[in-house]
Write a structure and sequence with these properties.
The structure is a single chain. By secondary structure, this protein is α/β, with parallel strands linked by helices. Helix content is about 30%, strand content about 25%. The chain is built from 14 helices and 24 strands. It has helices spanning about 25-30, 50-60, 85-90, 100-105, 125-135, 170-180, 195-205, 240-250, 265-275, 315-320, 340-345, 375-385, 400, 410-415; strands at about 5-10, 15-20, 40-45, 65-70, 70-75, 85, 110, 135-140, 145-150, 160, 185-190, 210, 220, 230-235, 255-260, 280-285, 285-290, 300, 325-330, 350-355, 355-360, 370, 390-395, 420. Strands 22-23-1-24 form a 4-stranded mixed β-sheet. It has a 4-stranded mixed β-sheet with strand order 2-15-17-16. A 4-stranded mixed β-sheet has the order 4-5-3-14. The mean pLDDT is about 95. Bound molecules: uridine-diphosphate-2(N-acetylglucosaminyl) butyric acid (EPU). Uridine-diphosphate-2(N-acetylglucosaminyl) butyric acid binds near residues 125, 171 and 333. Uridine-diphosphate-2(N-acetylglucosaminyl) butyric acid (EPU) binds near residues 126 and 333.
Amino acid sequence: MLTKFVIEGGHALSGAVTISGAKNAALPILAATILTKETITLHNVPVLEDISTMFSLLESLGKKITRKDNTVIIEEPNSLGYEAPYEIVNRMRASIAVMGPLVARLGKAIISMPGGCNLGPRPIDLHIKGIEALSATCCTTHGNLDVSAPEQGLIGTIMNLSSKNGSSVLATENILMAATLSKGTTIINGAAKEPEVVDLAKLLTKMGAKISGAGTESITIEGVSTLHGAEHAVVADRIETGTFIIAAAITGGEITINNCVPEHLEEAIRLFREAGISIDIIDDKTLFVKAGSSKKAVDFTTLPHPLFPTDLQSQFVAYLSLAEGKSIITETIYPDRFMHAAELNRMGANITVDNGIAKIIGIKELSSTSVMSSDLRGGAALVLAALATKGTSEVLRIYHIDRGYDKFEEKLKKLGAHITRTN
Ligand code: EPU
């Protein structure tokens, strides 16, 4: 029996919530521990399924992981292997992040090829292009990507890592990690500028890497021969922060959000305000969010950082389904990322989707029913919609939500939500 949330909606959220470390920063950071034999200690690591999957992957390669709450110690008692098995990679696409570190440190990686996912086709051509630019050879056989460095190791170079779809966060991170142990200088042009790339660069620098320009579209890495142990606290999760902003606003509530980085959400905050949400930036770690007197329609487009993140699109769509007027949403990162729209329509929303563009005609109230999550952020959006809806709703297949939110329902309950996990 699959676990679900049962949500009695219609209760305004109030109180304070503390944001966890970012999943999408912690995942590449964990992969980066492969770059050294020495011990890495990480703080503020969120407790969620994708992180457990990355632990399993690192353990299968030979790392020893000790976790106490949000602190994780990664040691290497024996030698490391270089094969990332299908059973783990097929659970999580971010497993590809071990490719760069393995090839840089061991000269070889065999990674089961990740397939498509619920967000549509997700190519890995940029990961391959980047590692080949560092002089590795890649071939795909029997569903595996087999990557080898030349005998003398990876060789730094100048490359452009963007494609017609823009930059890729994970490909940038993968090649950034590989370049830290390459010979000579690497310049990654067309790099992703997301805060998670910056956080990874911070850890790598603490490990002895020489990196400049992380957070801009050109990153320069001077290769070093070895990296050493380090200690690091993972940056706050900007997507979890945005999700709680919408949770407060959609329920007509008011909450304080602690331990976040408002600076990472500038464009989202601008659009949320335009949509009628009152957001006070108390200081560089704290926000106070209050629902406005009415929800207003806005148009927005998902784009790479510093613009509006695709990972908050679904949650904002849930909010806008209740806004006065018509909103047009253009999804440029994953045009297929609209599975939540059909489920919101089951709750009475008026959303039509065509070719990566959603048109929402706001309605006054959603009606409670059973809905099914089909991806992480879409699942969160359905929970938010259910919280705003009078009556009892069920959100099924919440394993998607467990992949990426740390203690989601516990945090919501503390804010006064009536939400229970049940079979
Ligand atoms: N792309 C390519 N070639 C590649 C890689 C990507 O063309 O080799 C394109 C994709 O088609 C897409 C864009 O680049 O249009 C970005 O997609 P990508 O799959 O590279 O994203 P990612 O770096 O793998 C990270 C986050 C995602 C987030 C995206 C976009 C992690 C572990 N994942 O994925 O997070 O949506 O960046 O910001 O960092 C989530 O947390 O819900 C999630 C899906």
